[in-house]
Amino acid sequence: MSAQSHRLNLTASNLANAGNTAGKAEDVYRAKEPVFESVMNEFDGKNVGVRMTNILESNAEALKRFEPDNPLADEEGYVYSSNVNVIEQMANMISASRSYQNNIEVMNTSKQLLMNTLNIGR
Q1: Are 7 and 33 within 8 A, CB to CB?
Q2: pTM of the entire structure?
Q3: Read out DSSP for 60-98?
Q4: In the chain, domain spans
Q5: Residue 102 neighbours by CB under 8 Å, 6+ apart
Q6: Distance between CA atoms of 32 and 58, rounded to whole angstroms?
Q7: What are 95's strand-pairing partners?
Q8: In terms of C-beta distances under 8 Å and separation of at least 24 residues, what long-range contacts does 9-18 make, across chains too?
Q9: What is the residue-averaged pLDDT of the chain?
Q10: pLDDT tens digits along 60-117
Q11: In 10 A of CB 40, how many CB atoms?
């Protein structure tokens, strides 16, 4: 659940900065993606979950638009905007949200089964 929460936060940050512009390509916001790794149980080597280990910044080119009247325009009249793909980010957000919801369902089902097991002896 923690990994999906990080993923949702990064996606929300990407969407919030999707329309940002800058006067130089290197100053504009670039999409960020989480990097996850499996967490193994130290006793039996089984996978017990995932954790976020790093955040990668996209190396895709910033979008270049000719807007000579924009106050952020460079000497040639170009403004650079974020390389965030809103459609990709929305699909990523839906996927992360569903994964988070599935984890909650698993936890609730496990809790209910445990409570039912404890109530058998009554």
Answers
A1: no
A2: 0.75
A3: SPPEEEE-TTSTT--TTSEEEE----HHHHHHHHHHHHH
A4: 2-118
A5: none
A6: 6
A7: none
A8: 10/34, 10/55, 11/89, 11/92, 11/93, 11/96, 12/93, 14/84, 14/89, 15/84, 15/86, 15/89, 15/90, 15/93, 17/82, 17/84, 18/82, 18/84, 18/86, 18/89
A9: 89
A10: 889 999 999 999 898 999 999 999 999 999 999 999 889 889 889 999 999 999 999 9
A11: 12
For residue 12, the surrounding DSSP H or E stretch is helix 2-16
Place of tokens 């089902």: 109
**How many Å apart are CA 101 and CA 4, to the nearest integer?**
10
Contact criterion met (CB below 8 Å) for 108 and 1 = no
Please identify which residue in the block is written with the tokens 């909650």: 104
